[in-house]
Amino acid sequence: MGFMVPACGFSLRSCRISDGVAICSVQKLTAIPLDIPSTVIGIDLTINRISKIKATDFMNLPKVIQLDLSRNDIQKIDGGAFAHMSSLEKINLNNNKLNTLQEGVFEGLSQLTELRMTKNSLKNVSSAAFKPMTSLKLLDLTRNQLKQVDLILQQLPHLQELYVSDNQLTTFQSWELSNSSLGLRYLDLSQNPLGVFNVTADVFPNLVWLTLGGTSRKHRMKFEVRNGTFLRSVSTLDISGLSMALDEVKTLLEMVNSSLTSLKMNGMKLKLSKLIGVSCSIPTLSRLMLRNNYLPTINSDLFQLCVNITELDLRGSKVRNITDDAFKSLRSLMILNLSHNNLSSVPAATRNLPTLQELDLSTCHINRLQCDDFANHTHLRQLNLYQNPIVHLRDCLFKDLQQLSTLKLQTSSLTTLNGAFKKRLPNLKNLSLNGNKITSINSEEFRGLTSLQNLSLHSNQIKKLNKRSFAGLTSLANLKLQQNEITEKQLETGAFDGLINLKRLDLTENKIKYKSSSTRKSPPFSDLPRLEELSVGLQGKRGWSYLPQNFLQGLSNLLSLNCRNMRLKSLRKDIFNFTPQLENLDINSNTLSDLSSELFSPIGNLKSLYLSRNYLKSLDFFTHANLSKLEFLQARMNQYSVFREEVIRSLPALVYVDIKGNSFTCDCDNEWFIQWVINDTQTQVVDAYNFQCNYPPSMKGKLLLNFDMQSCSRDTAFICFVTTTLATLCLMVVPSVYHFMKWQLVYTYYIFLAWLADTKHKNREVPHQYDAFISYNTHDEPWVIQELLPKMEGEQGWRLCLHHRDFEPGKSIIDNITEAIYSSRKTLCVISSGYLESEWCSREIQAASFRLFDEKKDVLILVFLEEIPASKLSSYFRMRKLLKRQTYLSWPRAGEHTGLFWEKLRQALQTGQELDEERFNLTVLDTE
C-alpha cells in the first residue's frame, strides 16, 4: 500500500505532481501540456497520443533532469525543441514513430547522458544530429531500421554504451570510424543481418561487453579482426545463435583469450561439444551460458576442460539424462542452472559439486524427492525447485543444507510438509511455498527455521491454522497468507503465538468475515507486538461485515492497515484505540456511508487515507478529526457534492487529494472550493480540471472549474463593515437597556408569549367545561384548598379548574393553561407576592387579560390575599390598568366579614360576561 508523497502541490489540467515529477501519463494527450510548473525536475508523458514535439513545448522548464516520452505517436521533433532544457540528463523516446532525425533536433543538450529511442522507425539520421550531445554516455537505438552506425560513433567520442540490436546493419567496418580512440565499453550489434564484422584499427581499447548474436535468418557472418589485441579488454561476449564456421569462432575466442570471463552461446547451430571444449580452454573464463541448445544427454566428456567454470547455465536445453559423473570436472562450480529441462528426479551428478552455492531445478518434471538428493551440499545457499509436480516432502530431505538461505518451492503440487522444516535449515531466511495445495499448518511445523525472515504461503488452500502453527519463527518479519480459505475463527486459535518480530502480515482474499463488532474473547493479533503492516482486505462479495472492537488489540506499533473491499457496514469509533502509531489506512471499497470524527481521534499520526467507493455523502467529519499530519487523501467515487472550506482548513498538512468521480454541485456552495483548487499552491487536487457537474440539471456534464462565479460575488468588505458595526452597537446598547429596563423587558416577554397563545385560540368556539379557572401560586395552595374550594365547590356548587387536579398529563404546561382559560367562563387569579414573582402565574394572568381585552368580555376576577405595595405592583402595568376597571376583591380587608366576601365572589361568578354589566367591589386598593 505504498504511494509517493508530492514534494509540492498544485492542480494541473492533465498532470499531477509526485516527488517533483509531473506525471501526465495515460491522459490521451495530443500535445505537450502548457501548464507544467517550471519547478519540476522530471516529466512523464508516457502512453499518450502526442504526434509532434514543437520548438516551444519545453521553453520554461530549465530544471527538468528526466523526460519520458515513450509510447506515443511522435513522428517529428522540431529543431531546438529541447534547447531550453539545459539541465536535461535523460530522454526516453522508446516506442514512437520517428523516421528521421534532422540537424538541430538535440540542440542545447550538452548535459544529456542517456538517450533511448528503441522501437521507432529510424532510417535517416543527419550527419550532425547527435553532435550537440557532448556528454552522452548511453545511446539505445534497438529495433529501428538503421543501416550504418559510423556517423553516430564519430559524433559521440565520449559514448560508453551503444545498443543497436535488431536494425538493418549489414556490415561493421572500423575504417569508417574516426581514427581517434573511442571510450566505448558496451556494444550490442545482435539481431542484425551482419555479413561482415571488420576491425582493422584499435577503435575499441576499452570495450568490455560485446554482443554479436545472430538473427533467425540463415546467413553467415565473416569475422575479421586484423590484430588479436584489438578486443583485448572484452570480458563478456555473446555470440548466441550466430552462424559462423567453427574455425571463425575459434579465431574470435582466441582474440579475447586473455580477458574473457563470461561467454554466452545460447541457441547455437554448431556442434556444441567442440564449442564447449574451445571455450573452456580459455583460462579466464568463469561463466558459461548455454541456454536453449540441444543436449539430451550430458556425460563426463562434455565439460572435461571446464575446471575453472564457476557458473553454468543449461536452461531449456532439452536435457533428459545426466550421468552420475557428468560434473566431476567442475570442481569450482558455484552456480548451476538446469531449469526448464526434462528431468524426472534430482540428478545424482549434482552431489559431486561440493562448492555449489546455487542450484536451479525449477520447471522440470521432478515428481519425487529422496533423502539423499541434496547430500553433500553443505555450501548450498539457494535452491530452486518451483513448478515441479512434487506432492510430498520428507523430514530427511534437507538434512545437509546447513547454509541454505533461500528455498523456492512455489507453484508445485505440495499438499503436506511432513515435518521437513521442524529440525533442519537453521540458516534459511527465505521460504516460498505459495501456489501449492496445502490445506493446514500443523503446530510447530516450522520450528527448525529460527533464522527465517520471509515466508510465502499465499495462493494455497489453507483452511486450518493450529495453535502455535508458526512457533519457532522468532526471526520472521514477513508472512504472506493471502488467497487462502482462512476464516475469522482460525485467527483466534493462537496460530501467531511466537511471532515476536513479525512486521508484515498479509491476509487478503481469505474468508474472514465478522457478523458483529462486539468484543472477541481472543483478539486475533494480540501476539504480534511489532507488527507494522497488516492487510485483511478483499474478503469476498457476499454479506455485510464488521470489525470487532478489539480486532486490533496488541498492535501498538502498527503503521499501515489495509481493510479494502471487506464490505464493512460500519466502524466502531474506538476501533483504532489500539493503534496510536498508524500512518497509512486503506478502507477503500466498503459501504461506510457515514464516518465519525471520533473514529480518527486516536490516530493523529495518520499521513495517508484511502476512502474511495464508500457511499460517503460528506467529508465534514474531518472538521473535528484532528488529522493535522494527513498528507495524502484519496476519496474517489463517493456521493458528496460539496467540498467545504472547513474540511480543507482542518487538514493543514494536506499536499495530495484525489476526489475524482464524485457528483459535484456547480453552484455557489462550491465557490470557495473552485477558487481554492485554482489558486492554492500547497495542495494538489488530482484531475481537478476534469471534474464534471452533476447538479443542477442545467449544468450536468459541464466542467466544475468552468462554473461562472460572478453570480456568487459579494462585497465582502462591506458586509464585514456592517456586521462589525452592528455588533459594536449591540454590545453598547444591550447592557444599558438591560440595566435600566430589566423588568419591563421581562414583562414584555411574557406579554408576547400570552399574545401568541391568545392568537392561537382566537375565534375558536371552546365549550365552557368549568365555571372558573383558579390561577394561584403553589405557596398559596393551602388557602385555595382549605378556604376557596369548600365554599365555592362544596357550598355554592361551582365547577372549578385547578392545575394540580385537572391539567392533562403529557401536554405542555402552556397548552394546558391556555385550554383551561378558554374552557372556563371566568378566570380567578389569587394574587400574592409569590404570585407576582412566578413565571407561570404571570403567563396565566397575561393569557386571561388578552382574552379580556380581545373578546371584550368580563372574564377576569382578581382576589388579593395580601396587601401589595405600589412599588411591587408597578412593573405589572397591565394589572394596574385592570384594577382601575375590573372586579377585584381583598381577603385581608374582608376581616371578620368573610361571608360578605364569599357572597360577592359568588355574584361575580354568576354575572354574565358583558363588560357593561354591574361590577362588585368590596374594597379598592391604593395602587397609585
UniProtKB/TrEMBL annotation:
InterPro entries: Cys-rich_flank_reg_C, Leu-rich_rpt, Leu-rich_rpt_typical-subtyp, LRR_dom_sf, TIR_dom, Toll_tir_struct_dom_sf. The keyword Ribonucleoprotein does not apply. GO terms for biological process: inflammatory response; innate immune response; signal transduction. It is a single-pass type I membrane protein. One of its GO terms (cellular component) is plasma membrane. It comes from the Eukaryota. Residues 768-909 form the TIR domain. It is found in: Membrane. Keywords: Glycoprotein, Immunity, Inflammatory response, Innate immunity, Leucine-rich repeat, Membrane, Receptor, Repeat, Signal, Transmembrane, Transmembrane helix. GO terms for molecular function: signaling receptor activity. Its main location: membrane. The keyword Signal applies. Pfam families: LRR_8, TIR. Gene3D superfamilies: Ribonuclease Inhibitor, Toll/interleukin-1 receptor homology (TIR) domain. Belongs to the Toll-like receptor family. This is Toll-like receptor 13. It comes from Salarias fasciatus.
